[in-house]
Amino acid sequence: MKSAPLRRSLSLVALAAAAILAGCESGPSAAELEAQRLAAEAAARRPPPIALNDGVAQAAAIYVAYLREVSAIPPGGFDSAEAVQAAIRKGASYDPAQLSRGLIAYGAVLALQSPEFVAGVRQYAVDPVQRQQIVAQIVADPAYAATFPGADAAAGLISEAIGKDALQVRVIGEAIEQDAYTIQERADPRRRWAVAHIQNREERLEGAKTLSAAPMLPSAEESARLLTAATSGTGLGVTASRKSPPYTPPVTRSLAIAALAALGAGGDEARVNTEALTVETSNEFCLSMSKLMLYQCLAASRPSYEDMFCLGRHVVRDIASCATTAVLAPVITVGDPEETATRTSVAVTPVQTPAPTSQPN
Predict the structure, then answer these.
(1) Which pTM does this prediction carry?
(2) Pair 156, 107: CB distance under 8 Å
(3) Residues 82, 104: Cα–Cα separation, whole Å
(4) Domain limits at 152?
(5) Do 347 and 324 meet the contact criterion of CB atoms below 8 Å apart?
(6) Is residue 34, in this structure, part of any structural domain at all?
(7) Residue 94 near residue 218, CB atoms below 8 Å
(8) E strand or H helix at 111, and its extent?
(9) 343 within 8 A of 289, measured Cβ to Cβ
(10) Segments of the chain with pLDDT less than 70
(11) How many CB atoms lie within 10 A of CB 344?
(12) Structurally, how many domains does the chain consist of?
């Protein structure tokens, strides 16, 4: 038979257990429920993270890498005919469609460097219904992205960075063209090989066409760098600038891709949308015409100094002209849109006869 103290101890344990069970059955306290409610509301007010798929970063990497290659072509002072041919091979190795898409993709990464634009877009990403409506509107009409607060700041970054790079490349192209004249002077020690006719002219032309047809492959390191810059909003060292509308179609499409990313709608699930937005026909046409003019120039040239002219005019300078037109010169359509767009968007210089020949002694 249990003693009285033992029975009292067991009773106290039972009461304590009952109290614990009662507390569990009653659920969270009012304070805990309020904290949970506030946390849920805060989460609902938080927009999704910035999202951009690596396809955009890879396209941008292709453009950046090609511009870097062209910028490394010596602006003058070629020391051999082979050095000229090597520069032509380097300059001709681009696909117009890929390069055009890369410019627009790079513009999107630049736009995401604008905190003002990103914040202006993300304020509309809090409400899931409104966010989906805006995403659909951008996909249907890319120009809608230019109406967001801060669009002028983002467009300024695009125009400033791409325009500055284009200007640097143009300077190189003009210097190469000038050197095509300088190298013909009798006092220039390079004149001997510069005026000699190029061997295997047909093979060199076909080689340029083959290089043009080969797909451009992105650098994994460059792609990763640009993707990080896009999602973090930093890392490219851009100079702040503003540009008011109207915007060119490539700039508009860059803004649209950046807006989708800021809304959290530019990730892998949106690759179809972002790839479609990088396609812009007038910019592709400009680059395609430049490539055609290069082929015609190479077909007509014979000595190395004429190939230097082709390189300077229809590779380096034309690339700069197309890039400048893409971000700085709005296309104004009057009459038939397709015909006018074709007329007004091509900034390349028509085929001209290569630099005049100096008769050798």
Answers:
(1) 0.81
(2) no
(3) 34
(4) 54-345
(5) yes
(6) no
(7) no
(8) helix 96-111
(9) no
(10) 1-27, 32-45, 329-361
(11) 16
(12) 1
